[in-house]
Structures are given as structure tokens and as C-alpha cells.
Amino acid sequence: MRRTLLALSLTLLASGVIAQTAPAAGAAWPTKPVRLLVGFPAGSSPDLTARTLAEPLSKALGQPVIVENRAGASGNIAADLVAKATDEHTLGLLINGNMTIAKLLNPALPYDPLKDLAPVSLIGTAPLVLTAAAEVPGANAREFFAAARSNGNKWSYGSPGVGTVSHIGMELLKGNSGIDPVHVPYPGNPQVVNAMIGGQIQLALLPPGLALPQVKAGKLKAIGITSSGRSSLVPDVASLDELGVTRSFRLEVWNGVAAPATLPAAHIAKLSALVSEIARSPEVRQKLTQQGWDVAGTTAEGLAQRIKSDATQLGGVITSRGIKAE
User: Fold this and answer.
1) Which domains does the chain have, with CATH numbers?
2) Which of 63, 141, 191, 240 would staple 246 via disulfide (CB 3.0–4.6 Å)?
């Protein structure tokens, strides 16, 4: 009987019946909860996007997707953790700077976004709103810029950190418009908003989703947006080009999902398909639009192309303005 059972087991093993009871290599991924790292505090725009994606992505992957806030260094702390992750279960919801010009801004940065991060999907894009504290002089854009120029470096502007698009964009605007406010970095945009409302700073470039509620409440005022024309996200606010302040001035903030470059290509392809589909689904699209995003939901290749074009544009500003990480 013992010999008969052994012979039967060997026959089944050879035919693949027993082998098929275990998952094929790579088929069961992910095998444990997935971490989605965010480089900014709770309540920030990247955080809201990450939490919007987490629940439907959890369902699609069959594993919990846990959002972790690792704020600091303009989002680069989280990006570095993603780049160096080796557990195959760590992703990042990152912004422009983390995936494009971080290394150019700071050569000592411990990761290289163009080499160490794998694009998954571009989630959303948005122009920035030039926003001012409610008590700042100027009933319109012309009067505001006149006041800003006359105050020079007595005024200051906030950003969510050195090297973020809000920072680089304001430096570009300074060169184009003749204003000269001093940069004050904060951990995230919620702190920038609070500082403006509290009178510590006078202006900032903010994503529409954060700027507009405060503008509607009368706590801040919108001066103009950084798109080449009007935006459907901010239809009642003129572009800086339209106002005659700048010429051919186009700057967008965006966010996307990235993975470590070491993550197997099959996993990246799976993630890209799922994340792009989730971002473009009616329910998630509505939430992202309410947060102030033009929803993209691209393939990994689409995000890679955007990284390349932004690295060129933002890198040029860094070089011309001599911006360095502090």
C-alpha cells in the first residue's frame, strides 16, 4: 500500500496536478498589504489623492493599501523610501519635483528619480493659482502687482518646500513680473494656507483644490492662474498671460504613482493598468475633480513622457535662477 501511494504521488507530481495547487511564480502578487507613501502631511493635496485611490486599489489588488505620510524635504523623504524599497509592496504618490528635478536641485540627494523610480500612472494635473492674503493691497491684479513691486523683498511667499513646483514657479514669475518676495518653505500647502490667513506671508502659488475654498470664504484672494488660458478648474480666474502680467507662462502641478525601479515589470504593468482605470472611473474622477485635478489616468509610458518634458522645463528654471536645496 505504501509503495502504491508513493507511486501515485510521483505520477500526480509529474503530471502537474499537485504543482497546480500552489500559485505560479508572480501570479499571487501582491501577497501582503501595500504601502502607499506620501511625502506631505495629512490634508495636503497629495494625501487627499492617495486616500482617494487607496480603497478602490485595495479592492482591485485583493490586499489592503495603506497610506503612510512621510512628510519632509519637499516630499523627497517619501520618494527616497520608495526608491530604496526592496519588499515589492511599497509605492509612492509623488509630485512633479520628486520625479523630475530633485537630483538636479540637490546633487547630494540619496536617490535619482530618473533612475531609481519607475513611473506607474500620471493621476492629475492642474494649473497653480497665484493666491494672496485677504488684507494684501489691490482690488484687482494690476493694483496687486503694483503693490507687490513697490514692497519688493518686504513681502514673502510660501511653498511646500524647496524645489517644489510652487517654489520654482514663483521664482519664474518673479523674473517675468518684476516682483521680489522672499521664499519661506513649509512642510506642506495646508501650512502655507494657514500662514497666509494668519498674515505671516503675503502670497503663494497653490493648487486650485486648496486655494478656491479659501477664496470663496473670503479668507484669501485669487490673482491669476499659471495656465496659458482659462482653465475649466478655475473658470472665473484669468490667466497671468490674459492679465498681461506674463507672456507664454504655463506651469502645472501634477501627481502620479511611482514604484521602485527594481519592481518587476509584470507588477508595474499590472499596477499601471489598474491605477489608470481607477483614476478614470466615474466615481474616482468626480472626487479628483472636486479636489482640483484635471484627471489624466495615463499609462506608465504617459507618465514617463511627462517626467521628461517637465525635467527639461523645470531644470531650465533651476539653472537660470540658481536655485539650490537649502
Assistant:
1) 34-126+254-321 (3.40.190.150), 129-225 (3.40.190.10)
2) 240
Phi first, then psi: give them for residue 34, nearest 5 degrees.
-105, 130
CA distance 178 to 152: 9
DSSP code at position 173: H
DSSP state at residue 67: E
Q: Do 75 and 253 contact (CB within 8 A), yes or no? A: no
Provide the H-helix boundaries in 218-280: 265-280
- Residues β-bridged to residue 222: 131
Asked whether residue 229 carries a pLDDT value surpassing 90, the answer given is no
Single-letter code of the amino acid located at 48: L
Is there a cis peptide before residue 30, judged by omega within 30 degrees of 0?
yes
Taking residues 195-213, what's their average pLDDT?
94
Distance CA 187, CA 196 (A): 14
88: DSSP letter = S
What does each C-alpha distance from 102 to 69, 117, 310 come to in angstroms? 19, 12, 12
**Other Cβ atoms closer than 10 A to 45:** 26
Global confidence as pTM: 0.79
